[in-house]
Write a structure and sequence with these properties.
This protein is mostly helical and 170 residues long. It contains six helices and three strands, in the order αααβαββαα. The protein has two domains: 53 residues, no CATH class; 107 residues, no CATH class. The relative contact order is 0.12.
């Protein structure tokens, strides 16, 4: 009983500290109102969600996964930048060279969170929108369909993200 209570308090404090740290990073100020708001919100969220947040703990975190994440983040932003420029070109081009359509791609990611991250990465990249996740397939609306072939479309859309996500979520 005492051990369970200690773990619960430890989980609460860990969740509170992580949430407050994220709050302070995102608001980017030490204004007392912002800090107080962060403390109150972090305390409330931690009180209701610390068991959920600490259920798995950090035992799944490894140096390899962290390195994949460090590589993935700038790669993701680079792909978003390239896609923004591509969409801007298509919008500004006098003939607006687009060939919109819906394609199916296949993912090798096994975890639901990995599939969700891939779907969000695709959606956040201008010119593509994930419409649905069906088992190991993603239904994608693509502003300029370059291929309707499953393998080729998968490589063109998800190929830039999936190897890194596999490293993070395996």
């Amino acid at each position: 009983m005492r051990e369970a209570r200690r773990k619960s308090v430890s989980g609460y404090l860990t969740t509170f500290a992580v949430l407050l740290s994220l709050w302070l990073i995102f608001v980017n100020t030490l204004n007392w109102q912002e800090v107080l708001t962060g403390i109150v919100l972090s305390a409330l969220i931690a009180s209701f969600g610390h068991t959920y947040f600490t259920r798995r703990g950090l035992r799944h975190l490894s140096l390899k996964k962290l390195l994949y994440l460090i590589i993935y983040i700038p790669l993701f932003f680079w792909e978003v930048l390239k896609a923004n420029l591509d969409v801007a070109y298509r919008v500004l081009h006098p003939k607006m060279p687009i060939k919109p359509g819906i394609v199916l791609i296949k993912t090798g990611l096994q975890s639901d969170i990995g599939k969700l991250t891939l779907a969000n990465s695709i959606t956040l990249t201008p010119g593509t929108l994930t419409m649905d996740i069906i088992d190991d397939n993603l239904l994608i609306h693509w502003i300029n369909v370059k291929s309707e072939d499953l393998e080729e479309a998968t490589e063109l859309i998800a190929g830039r993200f999936e190897p890194y996500l596999r490293g993070i979520f395996s």
